[in-house]
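F.,

This is the one I mentioned.
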């Protein structure tokens, strides 16, 4: 099925590994030209090389906490890949335990800056380039933990991401830019077994989520299949947020 992503230009943050890499790979396989960016510049370059058989893919260092990196990274993507159609605001930090005050207050600024403000900065930076092409798509990475009663400081920032998504959707509509989010459940990664067991038992679907489980939501939100959808955050978590 042709999703119409062939030749589109995408920038993905935090794409050297993890979910960001999965998103970048999915877009490249659809023929999109992708800038894989990461605070780990060498990792981004290596990841881009792995995907180069699919489409035109570049990799370089971009720390989302740095306004200069954001400005330079967006300009480089536009210059080397020819424009900007899709931004995947994936990079984020996980900190803190199951209540907001379990994290030292001195860590709050970093968490809010990386997980929330950087997404707004990137959106602001890509906006004129998308507007120049008649529109675009932004996908913000939230988390299903945003909707838990057991709320960590991390979860608070991810709920803020969903709020930012609503606000940006309204603000960017005049430029033809749709803004949506994905709230994944706990996917494969380095998490203690007791946490995995607790989350999986709370899910309606009793298995651990795989990175690939998120690809359908990403491609849907990036393509015209979702042309009447904006300001939404899609939960992809096996039903966990209905229970916890
Ligand atoms: N893995 C999960 O189960 C899960 C669940 C819900 C939400 N998320 C969210 O998905 C996103 C990716 O999660 P992950 O588990 O793949 O992450 P991860 O910890 O594996 O990191 C992914 C990449 O982000 C990069 N990164 C870290 N700080 C950065 C910065 N300041 N600027 C640019 N890149 C940076 C890292 O170098 C790494 O390559 C995050 O926003 C996370 O909160 C993950």
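My design for it:
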């Amino acid at each position: 099925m042709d999703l119409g992503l062939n030749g589109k230009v995408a920038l993905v943050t935090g794409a050297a590994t993890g979910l960001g890499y999965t998103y970048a790979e999915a877009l490249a396989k659809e023929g999109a030209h992708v800038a894989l960016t990461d605070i780990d510049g060498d990792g981004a370059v290596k990841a881009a090389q792995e995907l180069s058989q699919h489409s035109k893919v570049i990799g370089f260092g971009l720390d989302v906490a740095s306004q200069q990196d954001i400005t330079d990274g967006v300009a480089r993507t536009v210059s080397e890949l020819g424009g900007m159609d899709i931004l995947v605001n994936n990079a984020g930090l996980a900190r803190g335990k199951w209540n907001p005050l379990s994290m030292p207050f001195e860590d709050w600024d970093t968490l809010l800056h990386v997980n929330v403000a950087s997404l707004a900065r990137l959106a602001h930076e890509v906006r004129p380039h998308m507007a120049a092409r008649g529109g675009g798509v932004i996908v913000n990475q939230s988390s299903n933990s945003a909707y838990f009663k057991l709320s960590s400081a991390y979860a608070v920032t991810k709920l803020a991401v969903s709020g930012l998504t609503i606000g940006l959707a309204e603000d960017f509509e005049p430029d033809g830019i749709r803004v949506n989010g994905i709230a994944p459940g706990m996917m494969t990664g380095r998490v203690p077994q007791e946490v995995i067991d607790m989350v999986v038992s709370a899910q309606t679907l009793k298995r651990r989520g795989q990175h690939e489980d998120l690809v359908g939501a990403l491609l849907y939100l990036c393509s015209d299949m979702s042309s009447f959808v904006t300001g939404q955050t899609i939960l992809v978590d096996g039903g966990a947020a209905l229970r916890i």
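The chain has a mean pLDDT of 95.

Talk soon.
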